[in-house]
Design goal:
It is a single chain. This protein has about 50 residues and is an all-alpha fold. The protein has one domain. The protein has 2 helices and no strands. The longest helix is centred in the C-terminal third of the chain and has 25 residues. The chain is elongated, with a radius of gyration of 12 Å. The two termini are about 15 Å apart.
């Protein structure tokens, strides 16, 4: 996998987690998905910086 593909994957996973967070009924589940989304966003930013 190339760096752009890795970043695209991470951004896609971030979006999926954010979507699941909005659909979650339980606050604890929402918090888990939001936390995962933040982790994917941070990793995508790291990959972006490495690509420069």
């Amino acid at each position: 996998m190339s760096v752009p593909e890795d970043r695209e994957y991470l951004l896609r996973r971030e979006a999926e987690c954010r979507e699941m967070a909005t659909r979650a009924a339980a606050p604890s589940v929402r918090k888990i998905h939001e936390s995962l989304a933040e982790e994917f966003a941070a990793r995508a930013e790291e990959v972006k910086e490495l690509a420069v």
